[in-house]
Amino acid sequence: MQGDRRAGRAARKNRASSIIIKPRAGAMRTRRATLGLSLAALFAMLSAPAARGQQQPAAQISEPPDAALTSVLSAACRQDSPAFTLTLTAENAAAFRELPGPQRTAMMKRFVLLDEPGKVLLSTATNGQKVVRCETPGYTTEMRLGEARVRENLAFVPMQIPIKAEAPRSITLGFVREGGSWKLISIGLMMLDVPAMARQWAQADLDAVEDAAIEDLRAVAAALETYRRAYGKFPDALSALGPAPPGGVSPEAASLLNAELAAGAKDGYSIRYTILPGPGLRADNPGGNDPYAAETFSLASSPTEYGKSGRRSFFLDSSGVLRAADKQGGLAAATDPKVGPS
Predict the structure, then answer these.
(1) Residue pLDDT, tens place only, 149-195
(2) Structural domain contains residue 233
(3) Which pLDDT band, with edges at 50, 70 and 90, does 76 fall under?
(4) With contact defined as beta carbons under 8 Å apart, do 296 and 278 qualify?
(5) Could you please report the per-residue DSSP string of 160-184?
């Protein structure tokens, strides 16, 4: 408890503080929007499990809470995953290590509101506040740490975020004693739960891949209709829709799709193309039989690696109706449920 009182006295030397965004000329409006979106995204990433660590016995802390926050911000500025891991509780650190690299980077970006790795500059203001600056070629964020409040095994460090022409925003980061150090455990009123965030991100990644697969399927369908209008029939294979050579487009290389889609595989999905023949009478030529007039097509898209590149399989035919179902990696069919408006 003596250590707590000493930490409390030291922390009371600080005052309420602010993060100052210093963009290049002409970029302030864009940066304000990014600030709001980044904070909102960070809050959305968090869930609220029961707080762990509050029942741990008090231990001597080697550094005050504001120094722990300095470590968090410095690691985030540099986008230094190993250093950032050291600022987390044991459970969150283990989950953070298992995240894909882009997800680890995305999480750190939101702490300093910068997209690129920056240079860290530490200083102390004339009023005794610790200042953490993160400088990149395009922007600089300046973070002034506020007065820490220590309550037994927990500590809270507030920050204010002023926005031009708007009321300042405040946020408090929470820390818990673990292994003789302060470890980041909360942002605002939300508990930091990296395992839950990892599950949410994994599902979000699957959703994004499936959305891309749907867009790809519709792009192929549109290319097939364009090819039919140009050449009077559907191509024998998707490869005929691919990029044309320097000599120009032709029925064998119509340049309607990129090479990946023309090969029938993109964004973790493979596409199966089928022509459904049906001789008929073309409406604009009632006097002659046209064997291609009633041709239709179907497209079936399925994940190449079920559970990782996607879960749902999709089906789209000449009617334009999209259907989808979890087929465990198998092909969807015309009997599966519709997706979106009919």
Answers:
(1) 998 899 999 876 656 676 767 788 899 999 889 999 888 666 666 77
(2) yes
(3) very high
(4) yes
(5) EEEETTEEEEEEEEEEEEETTEEEE
Dihedral, CA of residue 251, residue 256, residue 260 and residue 265, to nearest 10: -80
Average pLDDT over the chain, rounded to an integer? 78
Give just the sign of the alpha carbon dihedral 134, 158, 61, 99. negative
Q: Which domain holds residue 215?
A: 200-325
Domain check: are 56 and 184 in the same one? yes
| 247 shares its domain with 313 | yes
CA 156/CA 151 separation, integer angstroms: 8
Q: Where are the alpha helices (DSSP H) in 232-317?
A: 259-262
Same domain for 150 and 49: yes
- pLDDT of 60: 59
Tell me: do 175 and 139 sit in the same domain: yes
> DSSP character for 239?
G
The answer to whether 338 and 321 are in contact (CB under 8 A) is: yes
Domain count, the chain: 2
Kindly state the helix (H) or strand (E) to which residue 297 belongs, with its residue range.
Answer: strand 296-303
Indicate whether 113 and 233 sit together in one domain.
no
